[in-house]
User: Which sequence fits this backbone?
């Protein structure tokens, strides 16, 4: 037996409630179910009522569509906020990976590699940005130069 | 007598792992107070060792270039309470000194592999003759008590079983071959299937994300609940084959 049903997640596209987004579920004689998303206008081009639009509103009720529209706005806003937060965290993670690799490169520079100044090397390792890494790298190089000069004297 | 305590880091096969290991060891010393009580054992190949490794490590053990030399090294720990940490991790918080408190009355402690973190693993769910099973323990960090004979035996068996599953001298019926490359499988087998380890007390770190926080893009949304990250895992974002400099 075939069946036709409007799904209860229909929502208004605009505040004026002139456009409706809805899904029609159809089941054929052998039980195959298909779904069709529809975008319906309240009025036809000639200004007459759209029968299909009225059918959906009558089947689901205007209050229910109002509620679903409201819930959807809240849901979409929360999803957008979560996506934004996720993206920000992803960017932070990427930045940290790059910084980690950059620090390891710095630690492979001979003068830094051979430096015994643990305090400065610890500061370099804790650096939160490339500029900080560069700054502590220079300080370690200076420290190495001074150590060499002192050694000569 | 008080149990000795120390960290073990294994760096084999690729020079980059050696450099990661040096960085990890140095970072442990940066944050561990008092620093002179921070004991570190570096397990590495002789060809990689340089003055930096000699300076930062209290104990050095040479290993070969086996893909899972990590397990061989873990079983050789010179410390009673041992904290194994993957080389591509970094310490970033002074709470590292509290790691020994996590031992409690467990024999081994891991971080968990939960459903919301499972995408970090290529293979987690698998078929067994008894139905579908999944890995639940993550081996990135492992705290274990080598003063207990059963734990020493377990660590030896974990290495031995992994070695044998990888060279095809051991494999149970009814399990797909793709699992052979995972030391997670040998770990799962020993914990779930071996009669002699049925009473082994395997625990999970409290707020385990603090102890093994993957700096992976998809994981960044998950945060520790009780404090900042202590050990960050850079596994996914590093190019292990390209020379660092």
Assistant:
């Amino acid at each position: 037996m075939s069946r036709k049903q409007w799904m209860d997640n229909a929502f208004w596209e605009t505040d004026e409630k002139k456009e409706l987004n809805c899904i029609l579920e159809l089941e054929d004689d052998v039980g195959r179910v298909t779904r069709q998303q529809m975008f319906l206008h309240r009025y036809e081009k000639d200004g007459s009522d759209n029968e299909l639009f009225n059918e959906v509103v009558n089947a689901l009720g205007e209050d229910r569509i109002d509620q679903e529209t409201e819930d959807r706005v809240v849901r979409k806003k929360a999803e957008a906020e979560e996506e934004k937060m996720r993206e920000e965290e992803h960017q932070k993670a990427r930045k940290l990976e790059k910084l980690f690799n950059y620090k390891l490169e710095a630690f492979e520079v001979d003068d830094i590699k051979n430096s015994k100044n643990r305090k400065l090397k610890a500061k370099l390792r804790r650096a939160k940005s490339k500029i900080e890494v560069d700054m502590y790298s220079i300080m370690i190089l200076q420290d190495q130069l001074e150590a060499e000069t002192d050694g000569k004297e | 007598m008080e149990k000795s305590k120390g960290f073990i880091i294994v760096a084999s096969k690729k020079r980059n792992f050696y450099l990661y290991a040096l960085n990890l060891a140095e970072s442990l010393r940066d944050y561990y107070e008092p620093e002179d009580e921070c004991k570190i054992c570096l397990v590495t190949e002789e060809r990689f060792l340089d003055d930096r490794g000699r300076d930062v490590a209290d104990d050095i053990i040479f290993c070969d270039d086996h893909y899972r030399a990590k397990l061989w090294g873990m079983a050789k720990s010179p410390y009673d309470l041992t904290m194994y940490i993957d080389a591509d991790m970094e310490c970033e918080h002074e709470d590292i000194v509290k790691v020994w408190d996590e031992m409690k009355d467990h024999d081994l402690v891991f971080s968990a592999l939960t459903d919301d973190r499972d995408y970090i693993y290529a293979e987690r769910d698998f078929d067994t003759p008894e139905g579908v099973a999944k890995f639940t323990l993550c081996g990135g960090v492992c705290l274990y008590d080598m003063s207990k004979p059963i734990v020493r035996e377990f660590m030896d068996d974990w290495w031995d079983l992994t070695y044998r599953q990888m060279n095809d001298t051991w494999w149970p019926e009814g399990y797909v071959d793709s699992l052979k490359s995972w030391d997670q499988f040998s770990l799962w087998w020993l914990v779930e299937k071996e009669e002699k380890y049925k009473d082994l007390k395997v625990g999970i770190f409290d707020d385990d994300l603090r102890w093994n926080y993957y700096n992976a893009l998809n994981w960044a949304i998950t945060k520790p609940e009780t404090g900042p990250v202590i050990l960050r895992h850079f596994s996914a974002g590093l190019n292990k084959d390209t020379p660092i400099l």
